[in-house]
Design goal:
Order of helices and strands: EHEEHHEEEEHEEEEEE
Number of helices: 4
Oligomer: single chain
Radius of gyration: 34 Å
Largest sheet: 6 strands, mixed, barrel
Structural class: mainly beta
Distance between the termini: 113 Å
Strand content: 35-45%
């Protein structure tokens, strides 16, 4: 993806606030051999860009001062309740430097798995992205995960999938975290009809006739 940024000279809370009023978003690009550069980006263009998955997990082409720079999105600060981007950070990409990035997981084949199709289970997607390490040229836009082999009572872990060439999983406290867990759905048994409501059968297999209502007791004669 490609976007246009402009250099900005002023910094500070007041300058950033005035910049946002004009429809621009303040940001910074850092990393590599060059010094950090303050930038500003058209907010409307940026707002539409962040809705695309590739903007968050792939190398971007940033045009700045007539030159193109390869960068990765590193941080995005949003307003707590307005649809507004307050600040954005990018990191320069160097071809010979390994980078740590978060890559989204794309699950498929779930409906064809025995767990879902025949075993009345539910697949819970525990993770939606993975933190990986690789060279810029090897950064995948997403990692495809096939769930067609899921079975009841099993889980899918990181070591159960094949990562793209040159991509290594970065463990953060767990060497082999769960990606997808499988849980059986609880099925409530159908309630049996109450015995009192079921009509009794006669000797021939038919329904027994209803018993006649009892006659009220006769009133005693009044004494003279």
């Amino acid at each position: 993806m490609k976007f246009v940024a402009f250099e900005r000279a002023k910094q500070g809370t007041g300058a950033s606030r005035r910049l946002r009023i004009t429809g621009r978003t303040p940001g910074i690009v850092y990393g590599g051999t060059a010094e950090a550069t303050l930038i500003e980006i058209d907010h409307n263009a940026l707002w539409h860009a962040i809705k695309k998955e590739a903007f968050h997990a792939s190398i971007l082409q940033m045009e700045l001062a007539g030159k193109e720079h390869k960068v990765l999105l590193r941080d995005l600060q949003m307003h707590p309740f307005k649809q507004q981007i307050l600040h954005i950070d990018f990191q320069r990409v160097e071809a010979k430097t390994r980078m740590t990035v978060k890559v989204p997981l794309h699950y498929s084949g779930e409906e064809e798995s025995p767990a879902i199709k025949t075993e009345n289970c539910l697949a819970n997607h525990v993770l939606t992205e993975l933190t990986v390490s690789c060279f810029p040229a090897d950064i995948p836009e997403f990692i495809a995960v096939d769930l067609s082999g899921l079975k009841k009572g099993t889980s899918l872990h990181v070591k159960d999938i094949t990562l793209p060439k040159g991509v290594k999983f970065v463990a953060k406290g767990q060497d082999n975290p769960v990606l997808v867990s499988v849980a059986a759905l609880l099925v409530e048994p159908e309630a049996a009809p109450a015995a009192a409501d079921a009509p009794a059968a006669d000797a021939k297999g038919g329904k027994a006739a209803a018993k006649p209502a009892a006659k009220p007791a006769a009133k005693p004669a009044a004494k003279k």
